[in-house]
């Protein structure tokens, strides 16, 4: 599986560089989610803009691994760049109900920063 990892202070962007999302490449994706989480990244943005084809919602269930890891670490897992074919499969499998999905990468980063600011403000209220 080909992908790029762009690490930032508050989040990491994982961009798939594959045109197909299949059960051949999902185990590597799950491993990468676990590795990034172990490195301390609680906010993961998955960019699927290169993915044009997905035949099975089972393949997309790997996204739930990333979502669960981020939620358990009090972070966000955001999926962006979804094309209509993948969106339809997410909708049919109800995965669109449990995942945070935005259309553009900058929306994802805005969401993460808003969430981080909110945590800091709530944290300072709790301590004060």
Q: Topology, pairings included?
A:
Blueprint: E1 3-7, E2 12-16, E3 20-21, H1 26-38, E4 44-47, E5 53-54, H2 57-60, H3 62-72, E6 77-80, H4 84-92, H5 95-98, E7 100-102, H6 105-127
Parallel strand pairs: 2-4, 3-5, 4-6, 6-7
Antiparallel strand pairs: 1-2
Helix pairs in contact: 1-3
Give a structural overview.
The chain is an alpha/beta fold and 128 residues long. It contains 6 helices and 7 strands, in the order βββαββααβααβα. Strands 1-2-4-6-7 form a 5-stranded mixed β-sheet. The protein has a two-stranded parallel sheet with strand order 3-5. A hairpin with a 4-residue loop joins strand 1 (3-7) and strand 2 (12-16). Helix 1 runs parallel beside helix 3. The termini are far apart.
Which tags fit this structure?
single chain, 128 residues, alpha/beta, five-stranded mixed beta sheet, 6 helices, 7 strands, 50% helix, 20% strand
Low-pLDDT runs: none
| Tally of DSSP β-strands | 7
**Computed structural class:** alpha/beta
The helix content is 40-55%
- Multimeric state: single chain
Biggest sheet overview: 5 strands, mixed
Mean pLDDT: 90
- In angstroms, what is the radius of gyration? 15 Å
Number of helices: 6
Strand arrangement in the largest pleated sheet: 1-2-4-6-7
> Which series of helices and strands comes N to C?
EEEHEEHHEHHEH
Specify the overall morphology. globular
Roughly what fraction of the amino acids lie in strands? 15-25%
Termini gap: 48 Å
């Amino acid at each position: 599986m080909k992908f790029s990892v762009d690490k930032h202070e508050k989040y990491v962007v994982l961009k798939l560089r594959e045109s197909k999302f299949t059960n051949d490449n999902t185990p590597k994706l799950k491993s990468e989610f676990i590795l990034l989480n172990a490195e301390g990244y609680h906010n993961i943005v998955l960019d699927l803009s290169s993915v044009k084809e997905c035949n099975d919602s089972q393949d997309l269930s790997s996204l739930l691994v990333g979502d669960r890891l981020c939620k358990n670490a009090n972070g966000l897992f955001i999926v962006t760049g979804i094309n209509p074919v993948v969106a339809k499969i997410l909708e049919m499998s109800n995965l669109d109900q449990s995942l945070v999905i935005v259309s553009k990468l900058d929306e994802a980063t805005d969401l993460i920063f808003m969430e981080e600011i909110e945590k800091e403000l709530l944290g300072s209220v709790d301590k004060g």
